[in-house]
Amino acid sequence: MRSPTRTRLALVLAALALVLAACGDDDASGVATSGDAAEVDETSETTEDTAQDADEGDEAAFPVTVTVDGTDTTIDAEPQAIVSLSPTATEMLFAVGAGDQVVAVDELSYFPEEAPVTDLSGFDPNVEAIIGHEPDLVILSGDGNDVVAGLEAVDVPTLVLPAAMTMDDTYAQIEVVGAATGHVGDAAEVVAGMQSDIDSLVADLPERDEPLTYYHELDDTLYSVTSDTFIGEIYALAGLENVADAADGAADSGGYPQLSAEFLVDADPDLVFLADTKCCGQDASTVGARAGWGEMTAVQQGNIVELDDDIASRWGPRIVDFLEAIVAATAEVDAGVAG
């Protein structure tokens, strides 16, 4: 059995970088290994006009063709037996009102509570196991084991929604999910609500003489993110400056560098955000006990923020909750507030 840390690292790299085009030796599941440099394809924001003009739940919207990363998927009728092998896609499906159409989700899609969790794997998908649920639409975050071709061979349409790299990617994917499931109007409302909530959170940020600095921890081996990632964009909305951007090799890390304890102690971030509280049991006490970390400003001032791992690593509707947690944490820091 893999250790919690190794499992967490695999999940993080898969969820956040599954679709990164690695420069070499990705493993068979499509998960980029920790040493891989990678690039990301942008998520297409286009759907067919028939989908854009359709009313919510209108059967006349079908057949519909949606396009993601240049790949067209045609769905002949409103799906009634959806299988989701992506926790983020599962959250999107339920957010746009398609939850009743979902018959099975992967083993990690445990939000929302009513999601029909099974032992299906999104990292090592099995065509026969998926077909056993008699789906009329399958949504994945990557094409591990050539599952898309296997499903196409039995006439099951698939959507591959890769890890978002920008906020616009998230909005576009929600709209694609809405179009593909007959919930165009609901999807538009979800996106508009997210944008409004985010605008409100950003508008309430205090003015500071200098931006606060932060370190975002993916796991307890000190993997982090740069500002070029989706997560980094969320922090930038909150006006924070990422210390990981200055680390040696960060520019060649595909956005996910492994930092050293020495670098972080020297960088001395104002805040430390832990996205490894569930996987790796990290909290303010474990961080404070690390060698040398007791000298860090964030530790001394109690600015260690314990995040929900899942909210901090998924690019679905709960990114608003992620930003809210960041904004709430920064509001507690007085340093550098403009008078």
Brief summary of the model shown:
With 339 residues, this protein is an alpha/beta fold. It has 13 helices and ten strands.
- E-strand count: 10
Strand content: 5-15%
* Fraction of helical residues: 25-40%
| Principal-axis shape | elongated
Main sheet record: 4 strands, parallel
What is the number of helical segments per DSSP (H or I, 4+ residues)?
13
Cα separation of the termini: 55 Å
Tell me the domain tally: 2
Question: What is the H/E order?
Answer: HHEEEHEHEHEHHEHEHEHHEHH
What is the CATH-assigned architecture of the largest domain? 3-Layer(aba) Sandwich
Name the CATH homologous superfamily of the largest domain: Nitrogenase molybdenum iron protein domain
Low-confidence stretches: 1-57
CATH class category name of the largest domain:
Alpha Beta
> Strand order of the main beta sheet, please?
4-3-5-6
Which fold name is given in CATH as the topology of the largest domain? Rossmann fold
Description of the molecule:
- With 339 residues, the protein is an alpha/beta fold.
- The protein is elongated, with a radius of gyration of 20 Å.
- Strands 4-3-5-6 form a four-stranded parallel β-sheet. The chain has a four-stranded parallel β-sheet with strand order 8-7-9-10.
- The protein folds into two domains: 163 residues, Nitrogenase molybdenum iron protein domain (Rossmann fold); 135 residues, Nitrogenase molybdenum iron protein domain (Rossmann fold, 3-Layer(aba) Sandwich), CATH 3.40.50.
- The N terminus is likely disordered.
- Helix 7 packs parallel to helix 13.
- It has 13 helices and ten strands.
- The longest helix has 20 residues.
- Helix 8 links the parallel strand 7 and strand 8.
